[in-house]
Design goal:
single chain, 187 residues, alpha+beta, Ribosomal Protein L9, domain 1, Ribosomal Protein L9, domain 2, 2 domains, 5-stranded mixed sheet, 10 strands, elongated
């Protein structure tokens, strides 16, 4: 199926581009969300107009988010996590953890969908990209170390981010972390 993009779509194209996509992706995602229209001859006549409007919107958004990109670009986030002897973490560092750390360090709010990474499951240094717009993609450095090695890494890192409490798969706190329920006394 050929579609004409109305909005910029990450990893697909910019507004005004004509792209060939899978039928299900086009019908169930792009068309429904108003990101594209079918590439009919009538729609193709408006492609240049859509492209120019997209460039204007993109330029305005880039100037607005330039400050945020400058603040985020190059920051270093340090995480301390429980890990085995080989450096493999017992849990993982997720996009939500990184969003909270960015917000604490820079006071700017970023959505977790803008963080371009897979969950980190081992100790080490990682580069992560934050997709603010198609053109603005600042890079941050993530350092993950074992809890016992915190003293060595703190001297190198500029900011330390504490690990959040472990949760069960359904998002509930473990029994030992939960607050004891107040007992009801009948007289």
């Amino acid at each position: 199926m050929k579609v004409l993009l109305i909005k910029d779509v990450y990893k697909l194209g910019r507004a005004g581009d004509v792209k060939k996509v899978a039928d299900g992706y086009g019908r169930n995602f792009l068309l429904v969300r108003g990101m594209a229209v079918l590439a009919t001859p009538g729609a193709m006549k408006t492609a240049e107009k859509i492209r120019k409007q997209g460039e204007v919107k993109r330029a305005a958004l880039n100037t607005e988010l330039k400050d945020l990109a400058d603040h985020i670009n190059g920051i270093t986030l340090t995480f301390s996590a429980k890990a085995g002897e080989t450096g493999k973490l017992y849990g993982s560092i997720t996009t939500q953890d990184i969003v909270k750390a960015i917000e604490e360090q820079t006071r700017y709010e970023v959505k977790r969908q803008q963080i371009d990474m897979q969950p980190i499951r081992e100790a080490g240094e990682f580069k992560v990209h934050v997709r603010l717009t198609i053109d603005l993609v600042p890079e941050i450095k993530i350092i993950v170390h074992r809890e016992g090695e915190a003293a060595e890494s703190e001297a190198e890192a500029t900011e330390k981010v504490e690990e959040k409490p472990k949760r069960t798969p359904r998002g509930r706190k473990k029994a030992e972390d939960a607050k004891p329920a107040e007992a009801e006394v009948k007289v």
